[in-house]
């Protein structure tokens, strides 16, 4: 993590000091409750909170200095204070300055689906020969990404940064801050249709990642996506996808019990990834493209992919006490990713009943009902024994599934506890249950309940 003197930080944020202070800063915090000994506290201001009110608490918990917005009165007089025009912009400037000083190679990753999985796979590939620092959890926005950078060890050789968004301009901001050497767009899906209006709008927002890409940088993207098929003469481009016109494409895919095995062009050996789903083969291909761009050998890429540590709640396979298999994919959901999950269940063999639990997919805009019904229609010929839905929009999934599953095997709930109770009554130890919904539906509670059977 960042370790600098007080005076060095003053210069890095283009601030002014309350007084000269012989203080060494180790790490930063935006939450006074989590301020560590020696840290810099950065009081952010939101619609319903003002971090300046908690500066005293941060010092009590170990902070040794704080930023302070010049326009706000009441700065503490007994502690080292750095005055800035805007504490959020100062956080971002501090992260940018630190990144410039450490000078790692930077891989920026965005996309509608698969960002986190691809980030993990890329980090797995690169960590075989580099000292890698990657985004932790969902720290991928205008606050989270700077904090990710500032937690980076000084000896980091490659920073793998996930870039999320909720609207236009956010990816551009993150890209300009990080100035990546390699930029990756995993795909263009339907997430954020509510804010961006169309898939074309989503593509434009994702392409903002090129704003900060270095002139000699490499742009890696889904070559099967028409909305990304443009002329990128300014950069070296590499594509991945299902079709053979891409730089890298799969030749064969085999779904195993707890992993996915595949072969692809340009690599002779079979490749195994410890994550389920054919769609994740494309994420792995993106990771291989990054590895090639940063001169990782084929042998090391295969080794790194096989040993990668994946983030939680993304097709995370768990075993219940009685032997029941539960796949926890409750972190997020979009029509594309839910259809991929249904395909995964279809591909899985060796289980008893295949049971699917789906909740509302949020932020899909005016066409949300149609998208939910289309997901329901996707259970056709999937081999699914039971479909459970949760939420108001989940009822539209159930409607779409009618005619494709027996009606008594399609169960729609708006009460989560009733869903859990009914689900517990039908599962057996030989079954597999896949749980997926947007984060706001908190369907991990269903997973936890099944783990207690």
Rounded average pLDDT = 94
Radius of gyration: 24 Å
Helix fraction by DSSP (H/I, runs of at least 4): 25-40%
So how many helices? 15
Give me the count of strands. Answer: 22
Cross-sheet strand order for the largest sheet: 9-10-8-11-12-13
- Low-confidence stretches are none
Tell me the count of domains: 3
Quickly give the structural class. Answer: alpha/beta
Distance between the termini: 42 Å
CATH class of the largest domain: Alpha Beta
Taking the sheet with the most strands, its summary is: 6 strands, parallel
CATH H level of the largest domain: which superfamily?
Mur-like, catalytic domain
CATH architecture of the largest domain: 3-Layer(aba) Sandwich
Q: How much β-strand is present in the residues?
A: 15-25%
What does this structure look like?
The chain has 453 residues and is of the alpha/beta class. It folds into three domains: 3-87, Udp-n-acetylmuramoylalanyl-d-glutamate--2,6- Diaminopimelate Ligase, Chain: A, domain 1; 103-307, UDP-N-acetylmuramoyl-L-alanine:D-glutamate ligase; 316-451, Protein-Tyrosine Phosphatase, Chain A. Helices cover 32% and strands 21% of the residues. It has 15 helices and 22 strands. The protein has helices at 6-12, 55-60, 87-102, 115-126, 144-150, 170-178, 193-196, 199-206, 279-293, 298-307, 335-347, 368-377, 394-401, 416-426, 444-451; strands at residues 3-5, 16-17, 24-26, 28-29, 40-41, 65-69, 81-84, 105-110, 132-134, 158-162, 182-185, 218-222, 236-240, 250-255, 260-264, 267-273, 316-319, 325-329, 354-359, 386-390, 410-413, 432-436. The strands form five sheets. A six-stranded parallel β-sheet has the order 9-10-8-11-12-13, sandwiched between helices. α3 packs across α5 (144-150) and α4 (115-126) packs across α9. The longest helix is centred in the first third of the chain and has 16 residues, at 87-102. The radius of gyration is 24 Å and the shape is globular. The model has no long low-confidence stretch (mean pLDDT 94).
């Amino acid at each position: 993590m960042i370790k600098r003197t007080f005076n060095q930080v003053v210069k890095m944020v283009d601030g002014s000091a309350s007084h000269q202070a012989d203080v060494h800063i180790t790490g930063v915090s935006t939450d006074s409750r989590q301020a560590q000994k020696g840290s810099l506290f950065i009081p952010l201001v939101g619609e319903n909170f003002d971090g300046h009110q908690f500066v005293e608490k941060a010092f009590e918990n170990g902070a040794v200095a704080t930023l302070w917005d010049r326009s706000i009165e009441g700065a503490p007089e007994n502690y080292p204070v750095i005055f800035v025009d805007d504490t959020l912009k100062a956080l971002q400037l501090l992260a940018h300055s630190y990144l410039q000083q450490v000078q790692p190679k930077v891989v920026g990753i965005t996309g509608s689906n698969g960002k986190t999985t691809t980030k993990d796979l890329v980090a797995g590939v690169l960590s075989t020969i580099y000292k890698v620092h990657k985004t932790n959890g969902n720290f991928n926005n205008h606050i989270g990404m700077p904090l990710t950078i500032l937690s980076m060890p000084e000896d980091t050789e490659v920073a793998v940064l996930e870039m999320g968004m909720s609207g236009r301009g956010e990816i551009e901001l993150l890209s300009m801050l990080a100035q990546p050497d390699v930029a990756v767009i995993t795909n263009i899906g339907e997430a954020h249709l509510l804010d961006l209006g169309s898939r074309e709008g989503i593509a434009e927002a994702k392409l903002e990642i090129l704003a900060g890409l270095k002139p000699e940088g490499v742009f890696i993207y889904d070559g099967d996506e028409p909305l990304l098929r443009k002329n990128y003469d300014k950069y070296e481009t590499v594509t991945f996808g299902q079709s053979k016109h891409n730089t890298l494409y799969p030749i064969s895919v085999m779904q195993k019990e707890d992993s996915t095995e595949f072969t692809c062009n340009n690599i002779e050996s079979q490749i195994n990834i410890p994550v389920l789903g054919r769609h994740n083969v494309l994420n792995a291909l993106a990771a291989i493209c990054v590895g090639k761009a940063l001169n990782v050998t084929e042998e090391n890429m295969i080794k790194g992919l096989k040993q990668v540590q994946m983030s939680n709640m993304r097709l995370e396979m768990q075993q219940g006490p009685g032997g029941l298999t539960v796949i926890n994919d409750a972190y997020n959901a979009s029509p594309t990713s839910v259809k991929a999950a249904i395909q995964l269940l279809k591909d899985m063999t060796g289980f008893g009943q295949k049971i699917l639990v789906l909740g509302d997919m949020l932020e899909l805009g005016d066409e949300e009902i149609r998208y939910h019904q289309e997901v329901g229609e996707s259970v056709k010929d999937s081999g699914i024994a039971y479909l459970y839905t949760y939420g108001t929009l989940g009822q539209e999934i159930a409607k779409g599934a009618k005619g494709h599953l027996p009606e008594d095997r399609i169960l729609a709930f708006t009460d989560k506890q009733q869903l859990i109770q009914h689900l517990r009554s039908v599962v057996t130890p030989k079954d597999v249950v896949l749980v997926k919904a947007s984060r706001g539906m908190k369907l991990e509670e269903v997973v936890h309940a099944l783990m207690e059977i």
